[in-house]
Amino acid sequence: MDLSLRLWLIALCTLLFFSTTTIAADMSVSAINDRTKPVGNVHLEGTAPAVVVTTTPAQTGQAVYDQYCASCHNSGLMGAPKKGNADDWATRVSQGDAILAKHAIEGFNAMPAKGTCMDCSDDEIIAAINYMIKPN
Ligand code: HEC
């Protein structure tokens, strides 16, 4: 085999090797976009980058109560203080708002944490408490 033919074969093998690795590369749209995106992002001083904040609107105390708390607190299930019943709430309210909120948020005996509304914010739970302690 003469030298030029051997070099030609090496070149061909190299070419084949690289072409297959290119084919094997991630061809997904996001990967391609990633590879072809412009280098560096221009950010002009003084212009704040747009931040999209997604917050779910707070639910009212009544809405939270109706959906999550009513099942126990309407009837007094398992000794739950009944909604709007001043006698049931008197001693509990006298503990102070902070304790009341803590017990509702973290759970207390048969009272489940957040009344099982794990997506509820602390404020929504507190709104529900305010709704249920209001005398009927
Ligand atoms: C599975 C039944 C159940 C559900 C649902 C439930 N509770 Fe209760 N809750 C109880 C029981 C039982 C108690 C009384 C616990 C005790 O005093 O031992 C209680 C007590 C409370 C108290 C008084 C805590 C204290 O310190 O005396 C608050 C406040 C309260 N619940 C708020 C809520 C809120 C707000 C919700 C809905 C988001 C809710 N509960 C849902 C059963 C429930």
TrEMBL record:
SUPFAM superfamilies cross-referenced by the UniProt entry: Cytochrome c (SSF46626)
Q: Which residues form the signal peptide?
A: 1-24
Per UniProt, residues of the Cytochrome c domain are 56-136
Q: Does the keyword Transcription regulation apply?
A: no
Q: Keywords, A to Z?
A: Electron transport, Heme, Iron, Metal-binding, Signal, Transport
Q: Which InterPro entries match?
A: Cyt_c-like_dom, Cyt_c-like_dom_sf, Cyt_CIE
Q: Does the keyword Chaperone apply?
A: no
This chain belongs to the protein called C-type cytochrome
Where does this protein come from, organism-wise? Photobacterium piscicola
